[in-house]
Amino acid sequence: MDPTDLHIVHYPHPTLRHRSKPLRRVDAELRQIVHRMLELMYEHRGIGLAANQVDLPYRLFTLNISGDPEQRDLEHVFINPVVSRRSGGMAEAEEGCLSLPGVYAPVRRAARCVLSAYNLQGEQVHLKLEGLFARAAQHECDHLDGTVFIDRLTDTARASVRDDILLLESEFAGKLERGAVPDEQAIAERLGELESLRT
Ligand code: ZN
């Protein structure tokens, strides 16, 4: 795989529904993949990007809540992340997602949580998070379980984004028809092959 070929897939691409297994090791290719994911995240003005969003079945995501590549101290790579100790009640705020361009809606999530993961150096990290960092970490961890933020909307919020979602669905159906994306079975086979090499 050539990491420079990676690109962001849009809902309802099947890889966004894939539940990824933990990675066993970090190697040079994985570091190149992460580098490309950071590049794509900044290019598309996002603050987080999960591996499913670049069509890869790996349990990792990149994050920089400033969205600013110059703010390297806020840039993180989380491998095999786990969210725990949700606390502080629920907080509601608007979310968007690079895989659902044009869709924005309020989502309720735990106000605080602990994120445990490995970084690219293979060191274990435990971070107590709140605010946007806590929200983004929960949003990205959801991706690794095949959950997208529109799954968490209230009925009212869902109704408000219905047309935008229908538009994404018809765009994806068009790509399938044109052969611009492989069919579901081919996607599943490719994910299985990639997964067997690293997880
Ligand atoms: Zn997202």
Features:
199 residues; alpha+beta; five-stranded antiparallel sheet; 5 strands; 34% helix; globular; binds zinc ion
Please sum up the structure shown.
This protein is α+β, with helices and mostly antiparallel strands. It contains five helices and five strands; from the N terminus they run αβββββαααα.
Structure description:
The chain is α+β, with helices and mostly antiparallel strands and 199 residues long. It has one domain: Peptide Deformylase (Alpha-Beta Complex). Helices cover 34% and strands 25% of the residues. It is built from five helices and five strands. It has helices at 28-43, 131-144, 155-160, 162-178, 184-198, and strands at 48-50, 60-64, 75-95, 105-118, 124-130. Strands 1-2-3-4-5 form a five-stranded antiparallel β-sheet, with helices on both faces. Strand 4 and strand 5 (124-130) form a beta hairpin. It starts with 27 loop residues before the first helix and ends with a helix. The model has no long low-confidence stretch (mean pLDDT 96). The structure holds zinc ion. Zinc ion (ZN) is lined by residues 97, 99, 139, 143.
